[in-house]
Amino acid sequence: MALEQEMKLALASADVAAATACLNEIAAGEGLLIALENIYFDTPDCALAKIKSAVRLRKTAQGWLQTFKAGGGASQGLHSRHEWEMSVSGPHLEPGPLLAACADHPAALVLGLALPLLKPLFRTDFSRRIWNLEAAGAQIEIALDQGQVSVEREGRTQHAPICEIELELKHGDAHALHSLAERLRERIPGLTPDNISKAQRGYQLYHSGTN
Q1: Ranges assigned E (strand) in the chain
Q2: What is the sign of the dihedral through the CA atoms of 178, 182, 184 and 190?
Q3: Could you report the per-residue pLDDT of 167-199, keeping only the tens digit for each?
Q4: Strand 2-10 to strand 32-42: parallel, antiparallel, or no bridges (unpaired)?
Q5: Nearby residues of 117 by Cβ (< 8 Å), 6 or more positions away
């Protein structure tokens, strides 16, 4: 189990080029560009969302990963939650290893009950440009994400945009995230802390079509 701590900053699409140039300068190099495809699962009544948890399948250049995120919260753009992630053989969940990995967490009980009922609810597809930086004694991964959330329902697809910067703490004190965020906000107009995760955006879009 890992405690994921990351700062999310909402970015206007018009500022992507300027933000990329700024991050290239700060990190002293061009970021690595990758594509990520993500499928989020929940029960029909969103049992996982009700306990602030999420199950995700992610396709990367290296293969598929399954992830369970549980608990935590967000304040001033800083998101903290427990995370379990592991490789899987293809585009399908492997429930046994996932449940075993998080067995000591209170959310495991709900996950165990939910697993037989899980279905894909929405997906996020985006390009990610990654920089790694050492700042204030911390190691931080900077990601600029641009793409969309999508929900398929009754033969039609709804979309919502994704455009944000994530600062993920790899090692060190979380205060370094706040310091770096302030530094970026001084350089990039309109950059603002964002307490809404991609999963929450997906749930918002999903529920907008069920009312």
Answers
A1: 2-10, 32-42, 54-60, 63-75, 78-88, 119-135, 138-153, 156-171, 192-193
A2: positive
A3: 999 999 989 999 999 999 999 988 999 999 999
A4: unpaired
A5: 43, 44, 47
Q: Which domains does the chain have, with CATH numbers?
A: 2-208 (2.40.320.10)
Select from 39, 93, 49, 43 the least CA-distant residue to 71.
49
**Residue-wise DSSP of 132-164:** EEEETTEEEEEEEEEEEEEEEETTEEEEEEEEE
> Which pTM value belongs to this model?
0.93
What size, in residues, is the chain? 211
Q: How far apart are CA 86 and CA 97, in angstroms?
A: 8
Do residues 44 and 118 touch, judged by C-beta distance below 8 A? no
